[in-house]
Amino acid sequence: MSHYWTTIRLTKTGERWTATQHGVDATGTGETAQQAAADYCATVEEQVNGTRQEPTDTDRVTLE
């Protein structure tokens, strides 16, 4: 299994976070930055694989 790094842009509007990436037609949202990033990844997965696995508490999103 290969691992790759990417940059996800996180922006906060009011009490909601949005996750986007330059050149990718996907958006994730959540009450926290971590939730928005996880939602973004699930959205990309759905677009690529045709299925969506909802993020769980054990899924890891690292914010640096």
UniProtKB/TrEMBL annotation:
This is Uncharacterized protein. The lineage of its organism: Archaea, Methanobacteriati, Methanobacteriota, Stenosarchaea group, Halobacteria.
